[in-house]
Design brief:
This protein is α/β, with parallel strands linked by helices. It has three helices and 23 strands. It binds coenzyme A.
Amino acid sequence: MRQSIGLILLGAGGHAKVVAELARSTGWHVAGFLAPASGQGGSNLDAPLLGDGRDLTADPRWLEEHDLFPAIGNSEVRWREFVRLTAVGARIPSLVHPNAVVSSSARVEAGVVVMAGAIVQADAMIGPAVIVNTGAQVDHDCEIGAGAMIAPGAILCGGVHVGEHAFVGAGAVLVPGIRVGKGAFVGAGTTVVNDLGDGTQLKASRRTHGTSTAG
Ligand SMILES: CC(C)(COP(=O)(O)OP(=O)(O)OC[C@H]1O[C@@H](n2cnc3c(N)ncnc32)[C@H](O)[C@@H]1OP(=O)(O)O)[C@@H](O)C(=O)NCCC(=O)NCCS
C-alpha cells in the first residue's frame, strides 16, 4: 500500500477553495492544485499550482505519494476529471466536512464531497464524484447517481432517486420517492412532485407547468 503524504486537487476555482478548506479541516495536507492557470479562482489557500493537469503522470510523485480529488463545480468537467483520475489509478478519497452529518449506514463513493451543514441519512447511497453541497439534506434511502450535483440547501425527502449527472438546484425540494432522470435539471427553489424523465429540465416550480420541458 502506497503511503499518501497529501492531497492534490484538480481545479483551482471557487469550488476548489471550499474543498481545500474542508480537506484541511479533516486533517489532509493539501499539497497543491492542478488546473489551467486561467481557471484559478484567486486565493489558492497557500498551496502551489503544480501544473495545468493535462498530463496526470507528468510528475510520478503526484500519483505515487498523494491522493487526488476532482474539485470542480461544473459537473461535466468534474466527471471527465474523475474518469481520468480513475484511468491512471489515482487514489481518490471521499471528503466529508466535520460539521456534516453522514449516517454510518450511508454509502459514500470515491470523489464525493459532503459540504458543511449537509445531512445524509440512513441507507442513502451517494455515487462517485457527487457534490452534496452546503446544507443540503439527503434523507433515508435516497440514491444519488454518479456525477450528480445536489446544490446548497436542496431537500431530498426519503427514497428519492437522482439519476447520473443530474443537477438539483439550490433550495429545491424533492418530495418522498421522486425519481429524477439521468442528466435532468431541477431549477433553484423548485418543488418537484412528479417524476422527471432523463434529460428533463424543470426550471421553475410545479405551478408553472409551461416552463417544464423535456430535453
Ligand atoms: C433555471 C435557471 C437555470 C435559469 O434558467 P433560464 O432559462 O436561464 O432563465 P432566465 O434567467 O432566462 O429567466 C427566465 C425567467 O424565469 C425566472 N426564473 C429563473 N430561474 C428561476 C427559478 N429557479 N425559479 C423560478 N423562476 C425562475 C426568471 O426570473 C425569469 O422570469 P421573468 O421572465 O419573469 O423575468 C436558474 O435560475 C437556476 O435555477 N439555476 C440553478 C442555480 C443553482 O442552484 N446553482 C447552484 C450552484 S452550487
